[in-house]
Amino acid sequence: MPRQISYRWRLRELMAARGMFTVAELMPHLTERGITLSSSQVHRLVSGTPERLSLPVLATLCDILDCTPTDLIATSAQNLPARRAAGEEAPINLAARRPTRVRLTPEG
User: Fold this and answer.
1) Cβ(101)–Cβ(23) below 8 Å
2) What are phi and psi of 66, to 5 degrees?
3) Where is the HTH cro/C1-type domain positioned along the sequence (predicted)?
């Protein structure tokens, strides 16, 4: 059965829990650990959900926030309904396909 995997980026929540509410408060912590990102890159990291993230940046964020990658990235998975295979036919409901008979009455 196919599964749909999703995730939620929790950087902003973890920053707030540690008293950091702006990008400017996070930037010095990144710089002192050797991560050089522009303020716009850090803003996108904080305000959005990254599609790609380097492991050094992830490890640094975990060090700054004293957390694990599991704390930063909440994942979930759910089963998807099975799809019909190509060429596989669903049962045909003949009653739905059969036309209704017309009744003719004489005029007059």
Assistant:
1) no
2) 50, 55
3) 10-76
Residues sharing a CB contact under 8 Å with residue 75, sequence separation 6 or more, in sequence order: 5, 6, 7, 8
Please give the Cα distance from 34 to 17 (Å, whole number).
24
Q: What pLDDT does residue 85 have?
A: 64
Domain with 57, as residue range(s), is 3-78
Does 99 fall in a domain? Answer: no
Strand partners, 73: 9
Chain segment 74-83, per-residue pLDDT in tens = 998 888 887 6
What domain count does the chain have? Answer: 1
pTM of the predicted protein model: 0.69
